[in-house]
Every structure is written in structure tokens, then in C-alpha cells.
């Protein structure tokens, strides 16, 4: 079955770079049309789309966060990595990764990242 | 960037009632790229509707989606206790995805 799991630090300091890893199983990111995306949700707030990488290694980023984000994949390890630079307390959120095969049909459980000194 | 505005912000209804949730886009959205998600506290979102009107796998038929252009609707025909949650619409266009701000469906 399809599963995704996010991992990374629970706490980062302001100005640091956040690196999150999405480890998945049950599908291959080499399959035509397959994508993995990152979405975040500040506590008590709405979902915010961050980035997406597809099977062909094309990458798409939120316009508002594009300068701070990098998404990459390691197909052999079934992993997708998101880095976000210059972290700020407003970036405190639960970060989700999701499989996108036409639609966001499978999601990880999310990982809470707190930005604080 | 296309902005999605959901209304109402909060909807208070009783089990058995009909719920109608609205999602309005700042510019026309392809119906193929309009989806609805349900999120319960402490859980990840769950895909309900894709392509504006197609139910995802395992979604009960009391959930239905409709609309086109800039106006889309999620309808829950008869509310069950497990339907009280937050609902988000999402669109894809110009290499960007955006979500609405959500509608909280609460028990009256």
C-alpha cells in the first residue's frame, strides 16, 4: 500500500535552513505522471502549497516562497527532500508531503516544525 | 496567482441536514483541476472530490461536487456525525496550486 512519512528537525532557529525528507513506499517516482508535493499548515490555519517535483525531475514552487525553497528527489531511495532557507517564526507549521498522481491522493501524517530561538 | 475564497467560514448544522459549501476563484479554473479535501483535527487532509465532481475512492455518495469557471460547490446531502470537519478546496493552474482558507463544519 502507499505510505509517505515526513522526517526532519522539530525545532530550528531563526535564519537556519530547514531540511525535510519525505520517504515513501508503494509507488515509484519514475512512473510517468507521478509527483510528490510539499504542503504546510501553521497551527490553526489553512493549508499552503509549497512545492512539487515530478517523475521527469521538473520542479514547481510557490511564487511567494520560490527564492527560499529547493525540492529534489532520490528515486533509488524513494525519497523527496525539501529545503527552506532563512527560517522565521512565521514558518512554524506542520509540513506534509503528498503523492500527486493526478490528485493529492495520499498524504503523510505531517511533521511539526517550530522556529524559535 | 489564483485566489480561492471559501464561504461560509463556519457552518453550523445538525446531523441529517444538508450542507452546501462554496469555493469561488479569482479567475476561471479548469474543472479538471478543482478538488475538495476534508481535514479532521490532528489528521492529514483526505481527498474527497477531484475534477470538480468525481468522488475519490471510498468516498460515500452523500458527498458531491459541482460547478465550473469561478464557482464551485461541495454538497453533503445528509450529514453524518463523522462529517464535521474542515473542508478545503484546491486548484491547479499556471504551474501553481492554491488552497482556499477552509470552511469549518461544526455541529449545531
Explain this structure to me?
- The complex is a heterodimer of chains A (117) and B (108).
- Chain A has 117 residues and is mainly beta.
- In chain A, strand 9 and strand 10 form a beta hairpin.
- The mean pLDDT of chain A is 97.
- Helix content of chain A is 0%, strand content 52%.
- Chain B has one domain (4-107): Immunoglobulin-like.
- In chain B, strand 4 and strand 5 form a beta hairpin.
- The radius of gyration of chain B is 13 Å and the shape is globular.
- Chain B starts with a strand and ends with a strand.
- The mean pLDDT of chain B is 96.
- The interface between A and B is medium-sized, with 20 and 22 residues.
The SSE string of chain B, one letter per element, is EEEEEEEEEE
Low-confidence stretches of chain A: none
| E-strand count of chain B | 10
- Provide mean pLDDT of chain A, rounded: 97
Number of self-contained structural domains of chain B:
1
Stretches of chain B where pLDDT falls below 50 for ≥5 residues?
Answer: none
> Main β-sheet of chain A: number of strands, strand sense, barrel status?
7 strands, mixed
CATH overall fold name of chain B: Immunoglobulin-like
CATH superfamily descriptor of chain B: Immunoglobulins
Q: What is the element string of chain A, with H for helices and E for strands?
A: EEEEEEEEEEE
The largest pleated sheet of chain B is described as: 7 strands, mixed
- Tally of DSSP β-strands of chain A: 11
Amino acid at each position: 500500500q502507499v505510505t509517505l512519512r515526513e522526517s526532519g528537525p522539530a525545532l530550528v532557529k531563526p535564519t537556519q535552513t530547514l531540511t525535510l525528507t519525505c520517504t515513501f513506499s508503494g509507488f515509484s517516482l519514475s512512473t510517468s505522471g507521478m509527483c510528490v508535493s510539499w504542503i504546510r499548515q501553521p497551527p490553526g490555519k489553512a493549508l499552503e502549497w509549497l512545492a512539487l517535483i515530478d517523475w521527469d525531475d521538473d520542479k514547481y514552487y510557490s511564487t511567494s516562497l520560490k527564492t527560499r525553497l529547493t525540492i529534489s528527489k532520490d528515486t533509488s531511495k524513494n525519497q523527496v527532500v525539501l529545503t527552506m532557507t532563512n527560517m522565521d517564526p512565521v514558518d512554524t507549521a506542520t509540513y506534509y508531503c503528498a503523492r500527486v498522481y493526478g490528485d493529492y491522493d495520499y498524504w503523510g501524517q505531517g511533521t511539526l516544525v517550530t522556529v524559535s530561538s | 496567482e489564483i485566489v480561492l475564497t471559501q464561504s461560509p467560514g463556519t457552518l453550523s448544522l445538525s446531523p441529517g441536514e444538508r450542507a452546501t459549501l462554496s469555493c469561488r476563484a479569482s479567475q476561471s479554473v479548469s474543472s479538471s483541476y478543482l478538488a475538495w479535501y476534508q481535514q479532521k483535527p490532528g489528521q492529514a487532509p483526505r481527498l474527497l472530490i477531484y475534477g470538480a465532481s468525481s468522488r475519490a475512492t471510498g468516498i460515500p455518495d452523500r458527498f458531491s461536487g459541482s460547478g465550473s469557471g469561478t464557482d464551485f460547490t461541495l454538497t453533503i446531502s445528509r450529514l453524518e456525525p463523522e462529517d464535521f470537519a474542515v473542508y478545503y478546496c484546491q486548484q491547479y493552474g499556471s504551474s501553481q496550486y492554491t488552497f482556499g482558507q477552509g470552511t469549518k463544519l461544526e455541529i449545531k
